[in-house]
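Possible race condition, two jobs.
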Amino acid sequence: MTQDRRDGDASRKNRTTPDSHMDNSNEQAPPKRRFKKLIVLVLFLLFLGGAAGGGFYFWKTRTAAAAGTEQAEATEHKEAETEVKAIVDLPPFIVNLADNESARYLRMTVSLGVGGDEKAEKPDPVFSTKARNAILAVIGAKKSEDILTTEGKESLRREILAAAQSVSKAPHVVEIYITEFIVQL
């Protein structure tokens, strides 16, 4: 009987009982739960990142649209200011140039394109006189070789525009039109 008992004990050990089978499944269950938690955590983080990215995109497009609207309004206002509303013809300039070798003369006719109020009529004579004086100061300091090239004429045009703009705020000088340009050599 002792041997039967031993055989019985051995067979009991080899036999799987429902309790022993559950013990093995409990040992494997925590890794499955961890894996599920990891998947849920990753999905939550992806959702959170997508929401943050979407919010950032919405914020950026909204601020860009607002800035675009402000910029468009500023551009419209600036274009309205820089639009030529009237032309002021100045009498022709006949000026001695600053050449040292020989006497050189410049005959030039300039018209001023002014902006501002559409209702504004012809500018007063004080404005025309101030603009003419500022332009004469620029032209009188030039040498013939400075103004005979295309770049020289463009530079002269920019200098005359700056001088005419500096004399008065209203009417605002927007453009300079050189309608006659003769240099006697």
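Job #2 (started ~2 s after job #1):
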Amino acid sequence: MEAVTTPAPLWPIAAVKALRPKQWTKNGVLLVPLIFAKSAVEGGLVVKALVAVIAFSLLASGVYVVNDWVDREKDRLHPEKRKRPIAAGHLGFGSAMFLVALCWAGAGALGWWLGLPFLGVLGGYLLLQVLYTGGLKHMVLLDVMAIALGFILRVVAGATAIDVSVSNWLFLCTLLGAVFLGFAKRRAELSSLEEAASHRANLADYTVPMLPSDKPRYLMGVGRPGDIVGAVKRGIDMFDCVMPTRAGRTAQAFTRRGELNMRNARHRDDPRPIDEQCGCPACRHHSRAYLHHLIRADEILGSMLLTWHNLHYYQDVMRGLRGAIESKSLDSWIASFESDQALGDIPPL
């Protein structure tokens, strides 16, 4: 899917926003060993602890940029994440990788200054984040355990920076607190799915095994076509969501080959329909160029036609899923669906 066209801020502003400085507060956990060691008034140790916080913040910011680049397509459908610099198209691949290199080089230099033991913990945290981004965040329970381990590594890093040991009591409190926060985060995501256009498919795994198999299973607020297909694979039967209509109102169209942003200039002179396999009135009677014109002119008809198309496509997806379940070919149908989605939009004229 293409980036949503929004006014581009100055590069430094976009870069700082991509680093997510608000998230740096999590690294305040590195100061806990300093406080419990009763060393908060020792100037030299305070400096080392603060340097450790900065090192972890830089490392985490690099991970955020990598994660935003990997998830940029999904983020462009999210009402809030679509505003992130990478999803909005304000930072390209070169700029993003420059930020990553800068952050990680700075974190490594600070880690080296604090000593090899701290640098080792810093490397362990980076490995954990790579594994989390690469797959752990999609695995039920393991995702929360990874979050908890991240906080434990922060505590260990804070203790290593000032050369004190971590008590079993502090380990236990950190683990329990982090697990609680992890499950609370998942619970919040489940509760706010109606507002979240993109979420983790494994959230259904937290609920489905606990539901009776002989009763209809209903998942509210889901979602994008890929999310629905993933939830059906996990055993969900019914859905409701504003996604087809909200996407239509914001110039987004769902097709067999992924999502489109009809505001983008590539559609301006395209005489083809949104989806050549779709039988909805918007695809049968109107071209991409006409729909692009309506959206650019802020004509309400553009939103209506895209909504019509999205609802029709969703019905096609659900019809296909029901047929695959009845014919006991769900796995092959899903494989074909995912293969088509991975193709991306048809080449521009």
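Residues 11-191 form a domain with the Tetracycline Repressor; domain 2 fold (CATH 1.10.357.140).
Logs attached separately.
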